Amino acid sequence: MLRKNKLINKKKHEVSSNTIAMISSIVILLGLFIFSYNYTKSKKILAYEQMNNIFYEDHSKTEKKENKKQQKEEKIQEQEEKKEIITNDYIGYLEIPKIKLKKGFVSKKSSDNDVEKNIFIVEQSTYPDKEKGNFIIAAHSGTGWKAFFNDLYQLEQGNEIYVTYKNKKYTYKIADIYKQKKTGTIAIYRDYNKTTLTLVTCTNNDDTSQTVYIAYLEKIENL
């Protein structure tokens, strides 16, 4: 009986040792798996962060290039505006209070009487001091420093326009506004018994037409 008990205890001991060995192996394998998983995960996170840094650096470089380009364009535009102010020999001024525009004009014979440089006096027009004449001015709309008539679309009948010329101030009032298709020429419909100011520019948000503003003289003041 005693020998039998010893055998049983020996078997129990052997079983316990095998169990412990198995558990130890499982723990070691689990530890290796966890370590391997964390290492791989950390590598993935590192790679993701590096990708983010590369994107950020590339994006920053692009922004810097765009900013430099914009600054260069603004500097060129500023130089052109300064040049335009310095070289022009104005003989009068056009002022439209409604859109806060005040711009000088040069003689019809001047090389600066050019729609690419200034508001442009059309060759067929007369100056403001010509009774029953028609002072016709054209200018660009759109964007850029030379789009002097960009805000003309805000004008309405009854709005006042001032022209300063030869120490006199001419006050005009808008009587009619109409559009015409761009054909290379323009028809001006006005009362030939009245001294007239005509403004012409491209129609706002319409590349196929131009808008004509007809204004009649209301009064003349000495300056």
Q: Could you outline the blueprint of secondary structure elements for this entry?
A:
Elements: H1 2-87, E1 92-96, E2 101-105, E3 120-121, E4 134-138, E5 160-165, E6 168-181, E7 196-202, E8 209-222
Parallel strand pairs: 4-7
Antiparallel strand pairs: 1-2, 1-5, 3-4, 5-6, 6-8, 7-8
What can you see in these coordinates?
This protein is an alpha+beta fold and 223 residues long. It has one helix at residues 2-87, and strands spanning 92-96, 101-105, 120-121, 134-138, 160-165, 168-181, 196-202, 209-222. Helices cover 39% and strands 26% of the residues. It is rod-shaped and about 125 Å long. The relative contact order is 0.10. Mean pLDDT is 78; it is low at 1-15, 39-62 and 82-87.
Summed up:
The protein is built from one helix and eight strands, in the order H-E-E-E-E-E-E-E-E.
Mean pLDDT: 78
Reported by name, the CATH topology of the largest domain is Sortase, Chain: A
> How many domain units?
2
Helical residues, percent: 25-40%
Task: Please identify the top-level CATH class of the largest domain.
Answer: Mainly Beta
